[in-house]
Solute carrier family 26 member 4 (Oncorhynchus kisutch), 721 residues
Amino acid sequence: VCLLSRWSGMDAHSPENLYPYTVSRPIYSNPTFEEDNERQAREERTLRERLSRTCGSALKVVKGVFPVIDWLSRYPIREWLPSDVISGVSTGLVCSLQGLAYALLVSVAPVYGLYSAFFPILTYFLLGTSRHISVGPFPVTCLMVGSVVLTLAPDDHFLLPGNGTGVNGTEADGIVVDVEAMEAQRIMVASSMTVFLPIQVVMGLLQVGFLVRYLSDPLVGGFTTAAAFHVLISQLKIVLSVPTNNHSGCFSILYTLIDVFTNIRQTNRADLVAGLLTIVIVMAVKEVNSKFRHKIPVPIPIEVIVTVVAAGISYATELESRYGASIVHSIPRGFAPAQPPNTELLWNILGSSFSTAVVGYAVAVSVAKVYAAKHDYTIDGNQELIAFGFSNVFCGCFSGFVASTALSRTAVQESTGGKSQVAGIISAVMVMIVILALGNLLEPLQKSVLAAIVIANLKGMFMQVTEVPTLWRQNRADCFIWLATCLASVVLGLDVGLLAGLVFEMGTVVVRTQFPACSTLGNIPGTNIYRNMKDYKNIAEVPGIKIFKCNAPIYFANIDYFKERLRVTVGFDSVRVFKKRNKALKKIHKLIKKGKLRATEVRYNLIIDNIRLEQDSGRESGQVEDGDWPVPEVEVRVDWALELPVRVSVPKVQIHSLVLDFSAVSFLDVVAVKSLRLVGRTLLLWLECWTSNERLQVQITELTRYKSVVLPLNRQLTHCS
């Protein structure tokens, strides 16, 4: 078989551009080909095999949706079950107390915190992929829900005529608060907001869990620190037991502090003493647990001990009747019946639901990945979205509020030997025991003790402030993100603050790419290493060559900045140089036509002042008479480094090559590509100028003056004066 091939872009009809290729192989018929290559028949699967394969694929899908089927079938009972039981009991006690305490952040009765500590665990056991996180209330998300609750169900909406105690315990004759209606409405708002979090499920099904990664660590750190301040101020009024108005939104911290200090004289001493003692004892024992965690087999459950002791003291000394202490009062036994959400609230809480869902998921996945890396297994981020989405829907239907995880609670579950979510189920059993049997024993417990437990568990969030100096040294942009998010969340509220922090973070990304770090590289003498000229003293620039490096993507927003930095680096504007040289050449052309420049032959070259004229090789030069040459068609070449015979200020060019280092450029958009092509064309025009390729076809008619100094022609340029 003979094939003829032509190079693209050449004359297809030119015989010299035809190249024959010969391919030699046996000529096959189809039976001969199949016989020589031993064709094999495809195996036909039986119906049973097809069904088996289909069932295997279906089982794989089911295991993906319900990871519990996979790991529970391989659960090592003898090795893991004893540790999970111990861990589950310890974590269950902590879950119960934190549930009671965190309910205060949502501004609902403490019993609903127990529901929120129980129901999410059941769903996450079936759908979750983390072995160690303890699912339940988290102070930040609880506070975000609480701000919505206070906005949609403030005390002012439940005022009734009558004589008694006014709003928030203030004296107001003729006005009282319908507490039962207020609590019913508030838990309806909280549970409806929780049910409206299937956005997590939708995000998981669409496999867009990566979007949450836009919440960077500095942003989350600044946000959670600000949330810790909000939690501290919201619990401060409970520890002091002073009357305040309910505030949410912008400057809520300031307004709450004003109310607290305005009514500071009404502080209940019994609640204050109980709260301060609880904070000191809990923080001290937690510090001991942290310092001697390798020596203590099980952390001391200080929250449980303090709660039991405080409830006993309150019951024995009758703190409520004698000293007016604020206690939990009623913790009804059993579970609340399931109820649908109030769809009328949807548009009022949709935005807050989304931000709460994102924050809860981001925190939970961050904690889960820490322990997954520690114990060498993987987390499926999209499956976690689905797991938390269904957990929140299930919890909200039974009067619970948003579930996530808390680092302190998860640390208890892992440090006490928890190996899997079996520990989570056992902790749920412990919470259920409290709900069904032991809840009434905690009715005398002071609310200030629960608030103090919440405050004592904020230490880890406040310690994030120590990251700021490190961020300042490592990356100031990240430091600014941390500070801006924290400040915005403290001043504007958590919802608006999170949005403001996210916008600021995106702004820093835009700024860092819009004004990228560009540098000129030089060579380390004696090596093939090239580094930034500004970073080293023992470095030299390659003569005649500029190496320009850009350390960011190039796109429509920064292409103008890129071109400006490139112009500064090369030291000239190629378009201006080209125009100036063209102007000079036109004037030289005029001088030649007017006969003000003379030419002489030097090895078949014509020199006119600072201009070298090359004869057309296709023509024969005439005879020279009296030093004058006949009129040929010539090419004008100029050495732009020397003085020109015309008055045109042409910028000097000191380089002959430009290297663009795009090793750090991750992408180029269409605008950048078009602009770079234009830059390339202008640089090519300049390059032609530099290599003396400007050609001006002239006819020399009269040469009246002659002035030239000829340098050796073996140089790239002919220098003339």
Q: What stands out?
A: The two ends are 65 Å apart (CA to CA). Residues 324 and 694 are 99 Å apart (CA to CA). The first strand starts at residue 2 and ends at 6.
